[in-house]
Design brief:
By secondary structure, the chain is mostly helical. It is built from ten helices and four strands, in the order αααααααββαββαα. The strands form two sheets. It has a two-stranded antiparallel ribbon. A hairpin with an 8-residue loop joins strand 3 and strand 4 (204-205). Helix 6 crosses helix 7 (114-144) and helix 9 packs across helix 10 (231-249). It is globular and about 50 Å long.
């Protein structure tokens, strides 16, 4: 999900009322965050290379202190509920998230402020993991009771059985939940602002893009579609973005044209 650069720049110019130096800050913060994510990905590659040489210190450090797992949570390593959002599994994973982040972060920072944007990132990250753990527990209970799906058929045809996984060993990584928290807050603020969603060739209103993605995530979570994606985490990020906007930003005065 990504808005075109010129649309983003035009939106910023409409929303900002200060001198030109005021709206440079959103880009500085955005690029600093992107740099942090890229550095974390480079460190992850380095750790993998060292592990192939049977040097496991860096790999173990990442697995215990930077990536979120249920085992890390149970061991009291609470900071992994945030640090995982700066890590990525592949260059494509990193590129997609950073492309979308570079489009929405300046909008969020310029209209809602740096503190609120940071709160949305951190809160979306944490709430995503709590909802992920709740979702894992729910599915585990459903499986033990013999009903492993929220929806068992579609169009009168039974759906194939879902793959069973071990939530304790699942590694959670990526900025998607934090990004969706930002995107949802921006969508609440500017629901008619157009965005481009791959592969749709035309822009659609933000409320439609966010709402459609939420519906997809609910269905995908219920049916275990695309199981390598954390659908519950995505929903947690979007839920926090909407809740934060409603409770903390809805009555806040924003810059006007």
């Amino acid at each position: 999900m990504s808005a075109r650069f010129f649309a983003t720049r035009r939106f910023l110019s409409q929303q900002s009322t200060g001198a030109p130096s005021r709206w440079k800050k959103p880009y500085i913060v955005t690029y600093a965050t992107i740099g942090t994510c890229c550095s974390a990905y480079a460190y992850n590659l380095y750790a993998d290379d060292q592990a192939r040489k049977r040097r496991f210190w860096h790999r173990n450090f990442i697995d215990k202190h930077l990536i979120f797992t249920r085992d890390n949570y149970n061991a009291g390593r609470w900071w992994t509920m945030v640090t995982y959002s700066f890590m990525h599994t592949s260059a494509l994973h990193l590129a997609v998230n950073m492309l979308a982040f570079s489009s929405f972060s300046p909008i969020c920072i310029s209209t809602m402020g740096l503190r609120s944007s940071a709160a949305l990132w951190l809160g979306g990250s944490v709430s995503a993991m709590y909802l992920t753990m709740l979702g894992d527990d729910y599915k585990k209970n459903q499986a033990s009771s013999g009903s492993s799906r929220l929806i068992t058929s579609f169009g009168g045809r039974p759906l194939p059985p879902r793959a069973q996984g071990n939530p304790e060993n699942t590694r959670h990584i990526g900025a998607s939940a934090s990004l969706l928290s930002l995107v949802t807050a921006v969508a609440c603020r500017t629901p008619w602002h157009g965005v481009y969603v791959i592969p749709i060739p035309v822009s659609i209103p933000m409320y439609g893009a966010v709402g459609g993605f939420a519906v997809f995530s609910i269905i995908a979570f219920a049916q275990d579609l695309v199981p390598f994606i954390g659908h519950a985490g995505h929903l947690g990020g979007m839920a926090f973005g909407a809740a934060y906007y409603a409770l903390a930003l809805r009555t806040k005065r924003f810059p006007k044209r």
